[in-house]
Design goal:
This protein is an alpha+beta fold. It has seven domains: about 30 residues; about 90 residues, no CATH class; about 70 residues, no CATH class; about 40 residues; about 140 residues, no CATH class; about 100 residues, Chitinase A, domain 3; about 100 residues, Chitinase A, domain 3 (Roll). About 50% of the residues lie in helices and about 15% in strands. The longest helix is centred in the C-terminal third of the chain and has 34 residues. It is globular.
Length: about 600
């Protein structure tokens, strides 16, 4: 049954979409109860301004459709749709905050300003439009003639431009007020250049806090509360956390299924070597939909870009040569090497996945039919009962909001998005039809995301205080090693006497992430402050205490700096402006009263449609 449904999935989704629209219109007008979801239901309220459900859904669905079209019509997973919905929500909240800020600052836009901007500053997509190019350059005359033609009005381009500039111009005015007066001195430029171009190389000994048991570090309740109170503003919103139970019916492939996939790959290779175009066969047959659209072409890629089996086989070919079927974790590949350029290769390939035979798939589908009987129900005991009857082991997994749900190393498509998309505790998901298995998920518990309370943050705070105290406890040992070096021993001899190991770094800058030492740590600062070749210095690294000796240091070249200073200034000015704008918007959001009703609205919508 499920197998036949999959083959008709395209038509089923069309019907479902139509029924949804009909049902939505009916539901808006039905007055079901006080939990009804209508077009005007606020998905969020920002400083008293509502973002309506219908506006949010329309914007999110438009973006989902655009992403689907951009991927060649490939259906998105629930997780991908959830990411798009989150992006849409955040953009709509920001838009409301900006509109409120325009009103507060008295920022307005006149029709004349819109006309002038349209003539002088076309949007990026029009700048790249082929119809406005002359010899590879944007032609303003062509563009302006088009704007004054009847065609621009008939195609709705003028209305689109007006909408674009009514949104864009106030934003530009606001951002100019926020980030306009920016100046970067030569001294600031030189310091930034030094940070990325001064280099040091050190020998060091790392003292590991793991050598100190947690039980030996005491943290009082007062310390926990003091840390929480002093770091409230720094604490990021926590993602939601859910505990889910799940069962799976794997699509187990047999040796016969593998042999059938290999035979198909061999037949495709024979077709190509017999005269068929590789690109045509790839478009028709390859299971890698992304490259299939391009005739199986994969871009020039550096060594290590592909799984080992694929890469070894591709690199063994001569340009233009076509491989025998190559087995990888994805299935069987037919590979044609197009180009070798240094360590990089460009290839075409056709992927034949190893799938169940019709008879095996039918048996799997019959078991999945039984499991589907408890899909979308709110009876946790039935989930357990059906799992027992089918002999399925129930697993339990922690799901984090915005992260894909994984179980036993396999991705459960849409599992996390469902759990955080309005499901109630105790509810069971739809049957998830993945490439490798069927999954059924039950939501067992749910913790909302957002700023952590003291109780929610307490364990993390304790770990951080323990980590800091351990570093403090290691400092006397590190100082003893420094004292031994100051007493005349070499770092190597003193470390050996203490049973420690000396490591050597590669050259690094102040901004570099250095293995073991970390980035922007006290130890990095010491590497650029201590005298070269002299006695060791103790400092804290990322998660340890470091005793280091500076072996070599090279200063940035001032002459090279002067040659690129103008370009660097422009880049830094742009970065500073962007940072100011981002910080300003973040501050607006932090100060705003935002009621995020998405989960409860989605939950009510789900209940109403069930």
């Amino acid at each position: 049954m499920l197998q036949s449904m999959r083959s008709a999935a395209r038509y089923i989704w069309i019907v479902i979409a139509a029924l949804f629209l009909i049902g939505f219109v009916f539901y808006q007008q039905s007055g079901l109860d006080d939990k009804k979801v209508t077009a005007g239901t606020p998905i969020a309220t920002v400083n008293g301004t509502d973002i309506n459900y219908v506006d949010f859904e329309r914007a999110a669905q438009n973006r989902i459709r655009q992403e689907q079209e951009g991927s060649g019509g490939k259906t998105l997973t629930l997780d991908q749709e959830r990411r798009i919905e989150d992006d849409t929500y955040n953009e709509m909240v920001t838009s409301v905050l900006l509109q409120q800020e325009y009103k507060k600052r008295g920022i307005t836009i006149s029709d004349n300003e819109i006309q002038q901007a349209a003539l002088a500053s076309p949007p990026q997509q029009l700048l790249q439009s082929p119809e406005f190019q002359t010899e590879g350059q944007f032609d303003f005359e062509k563009y302006r003639r088009f704007l004054t033609s009847p065609v621009a009005k008939q195609q709705g381009v003028l209305l689109q431009l007006e909408g674009y500039y009514r949104d864009e111009l106030p934003k530009r005015k606001l951002f100019e007020q926020i980030a306009g007066p920016v100046f970067v001195t030569d001294a600031q430029l030189w310091r930034a250049w030094q940070d990325s171009h001064d280099t040091a190389q050190v020998s060091f000994v790392a003292f590991d806090p793991a050598t100190i048991p947690d039980s030996s570090v005491h943290v009082s309740d007062g310390e926990l509360h003091a840390y929480f109170d002093s770091h409230k503003k720094e604490m990021l919103d926590r993602p939601g956390r859910a505990i889910v139970s799940l069962v799976t019916i794997p699509r187990t492939v047999t040796a016969a299924d593998t042999a059938a996939a290999r035979a198909k790959a061999e037949a495709l290779r024979t077709e190509i070597t017999g005269g068929a175009k590789f690109d045509d066969v790839a478009k028709r047959e390859s299971a890698d939909s992304g490259s299939a659209e391009k005739g199986g072409a994969l871009a020039l890629a550096a060594k290590g870009s592909y799984v080992k089996q694929f890469e070894d086989a591709a690199r063994a070919l001569k340009p233009g040569e076509i491989s025998q079927p190559v087995a990888s974790p994805f299935g069987f590949h037919i590979i044609r090497l197009d180009e070798k350029k240094g360590d990089s290769i460009a290839v075409h390939h056709i992927l034949v996945r190893i799938t169940q035979s019709d008879s095996s798939a039918a048996r799997t589908d019959r078991r999945a039919d039984s499991l589907s009987k408890v899909a979308n129900v709110d009876k946790p005991a039935e989930f357990d009962s059906v799992a027992r009857a089918l002999g399925l082991k129930i697993g339990q997994v922690t799901a984090m909001e915005s992260d894909p749900l994984e179980w036993n190393g396999a991705y459960v498509p849409g599992g996390a998005a469902w759990a955080f998309g309005g499901a109630k505790v105790g509810e069971t998901s739809e049957l998830i039809d993945a490439d490798n298995a069927y999954y059924l998920v039950r939501l067992d518990s749910l913790r909302e995301g957002g700023k952590p309370t003291f109780d929610a943050a307490k364990d993390d705070i304790r770990r951080e205080i323990v980590r800091t105290k351990k570093l403090d406890m290691l400092m006397p040992k590190a100082q003893a090693l420094v004292t031994a070096v100051h007493g005349g021993q070499s770092l190597e001899a003193a470390a050996g006497a203490a049973g420690m190991k000396v490591e050597k770094s590669t050259p690094f800058a102040r901004t570099t992430q250095v293995p073991t030492i970390g980035q922007t740590t006290e130890a990095i600062g010491a590497a650029f402050g201590a005298p070269v070749g002299q006695a060791a210095t103790a400092a804290k690294g990322q998660n340890n205490v470091i005793v280091l000796r500076v072996d070599r240091r090279i200063s940035a070249d001032r002459a090279v700096f002067e040659k690129q200073k103008v370009e660097q200034r422009q880049q830094m000015l742009q970065r500073v402006r962007q940072q100011r704008v981002q910080q300003y918007i973040a501050a607006l959001r932090d100060a705003a009263k935002i009621d995020d009703n998405r989960r409860i609205v989605k939950q009510n919508a789900r209940q109403a449609s069930s």
